[in-house]
Amino acid sequence: VFDCVGPVVASTAPAPVVPPGMRYSYRTDQDLVQAWQTAGPYWARTGALRRSQERYELAARGSNDGLWDWDLAANSIYYSPRWMQALGHEDSGVEQAPEAWLERVHPDDRPGLEARIRSHLAGGSAHLVAEYRVRHADGSYRWMLSRGIAVRDETTGKPYRFAGSQTDIDERKKMEEQLMHLALHDPLTDL
């Protein structure tokens, strides 16, 4: 918002856009130019941030992966709508807690997943990579691949955030099982 003080010299320059919360009084075109110079870097950074967010959103949608973001201090997780849809839930059908994820993991796979998470958070691996079965809303189990990375405090090295993606690999795993079966059995005799 601009405050006009006294007579303003007619100008062909458009009125500058001022960052939120910034006020500027101008009396001459020189003041108007100064306002443009002051606001310009702000809007350039804002535009760059908007383009970066659009790139991220497009990449996330294009990958068709579900995203998760675990705040380790608060012990809460954000699950993206796609993460929930892969498990057959609506956008708000999953509690934002680690147990909402881990309790759905197949009992045979959960200890291994939890061990990989603990190892990664303790610094034992650069990234989390884990394949496991997870319970779908219809009661069936589907294979998922999770990839993630911990964000660590620069001074202590302690992780405070853990984020990643979850990819539905159920079809791939079924094909692998079928190929293994065909490799070990004669299709004519089933021996």
Largest sheet: 5 strands, antiparallel
Topology pattern, helix = H, strand = E: EEHEEHHHEEEH
Uncertain residue ranges: 1-11
Structural class comes to: alpha+beta
Categorize the overall geometry. elongated
The largest beta-sheet arranges its strands as 4-3-7-6-5
Radius of gyration over C-alpha positions, nearest whole angstrom: 27 Å
Number of helices: 5
Q: What portion of residues is helical?
A: 25-40%
Count of strand segments: 7
Q: For the terminal residues, how far apart are their CA atoms?
A: 81 Å
Share of residues in strands? 15-25%
Average pLDDT, rounded to a whole number, is 81
Overall description:
This protein is α+β, with helices and mostly antiparallel strands. The chain is 38% helix and 24% strand. It contains 5 helices and 7 strands; from the N terminus they run E-E-H-E-E-H-H-H-E-E-E-H. The chain has helices at residues 29-63, 81-86, 98-102, 110-121, 170-184, and strands at residues 2-4, 24-26, 66-71, 76-79, 128-135, 141-152, 159-168. The strands form 2 sheets. A 5-stranded antiparallel sheet has the order 4-3-7-6-5, sandwiched between helices. The radius of gyration is 27 Å and the shape is elongated.
Short description:
The chain is α+β, with helices and mostly antiparallel strands and 191 residues long.
What structural keywords apply?
191 residues, alpha+beta, 5-stranded antiparallel sheet, two-stranded parallel ribbon, 7 strands, 24% strand, elongated
Write the layout of secondary structure elements.
Elements: E1 2-4, E2 24-26, H1 29-63, E3 66-71, E4 76-79, H2 81-86, H3 98-102, H4 110-121, E5 128-135, E6 141-152, E7 159-168, H5 170-184
Parallel strand pairs: 1-2
Antiparallel strand pairs: 3-4, 3-7, 5-6, 6-7
